[in-house]
Amino acid sequence: MLVNDDPDLKDLGPLAPGFAVILVEPQLGENIGMAVRAMANCALGELRLVRPRDGWPNSMAVAPASGADRILNSAKVFQTTGEAVADLQTVLASTARPRDMIKDVFTPREAAKRLRFDVANGMNAGVLFGKESSGLNNDDVALASGILTVPLNPVFSSLNLAQAVFVIGYEWLQTLDKIPEVKLERQKEKRPANMEEMLGLFEHLERELDACGFLRVQEKRQIMLRNIRNIFLRACLTEQEVRTLRGIISGLVKPEIEPVD
Fold first, then answer.
1. pLDDT of 73-123, one tens digit each?
2. 13: alpha, beta or left, given left = phi > 0 and alpha = psi -120 to 50?
3. Per-domain boundaries in the chain
4. Which residues 6+ apart lie within 8 Å of 95 measured at CB?
5. Is the pTM for the entire model greater than 0.90?
């Protein structure tokens, strides 16, 4: 715990269920604190940290958070981005740089609508934010189902961490009374696959591709893996479809394997 968790210290009001703010390799405790203050401004309460450079807890985050102690104290720390998004079905990656990947691109307003729709339909969602010096790397972006880009001055589009969190948080807050009435009709057994299940599929497929020599050209391997992951992420697979695909992979490798129902 970073600070006194006395609820009378500062009442943040209700922090409505929404999307998780995921800071990947944040460098300064002060910047984490300012991002947390932005989260509290927008009634977002779930903070996830991936390998914070100076460790966690970090006392330097307390003052910039301006009393948003509840968010600081409940922050979860992960060693990998994959672990941080494992339970999520919708992941957006915040980046200003063009990437060599085919993904849906959202403005903050469009992203807020997408997040509201998915959350209203029972999905878990999150937005990835990269470290202050260089943002997200391509492998982190490859885990996302879409890209979040803020349309700014094209010759000066850099935002600090708190600004980036605030701009999507603000748009999320503005959609509070505009929760989509249309909901997806899904049977419980056909829920969208979460990232833990997708990563399991990727690892299974990549292991067999390595075994058969498909990924033997090392200088192209990482790009090929990202492209393969993007193909499946764009498909928005259900949990059942992931199990079916894993059964297909096993069947191709070992034909005696029984098909998955």
1. 999 999 999 999 999 999 999 988 766 788 899 999 999 999 999 998 889
2. left
3. 20-174, 188-253
4. 130, 135, 136, 141, 147, 148, 149
5. no
Q: Please check whether the domain covering 188-253 is classified as CATH 1.10.8.590.
A: yes
Rounded Cα gap, residues 12 and 55, in angstroms: 25
Class of 20-174 in CATH = alpha beta
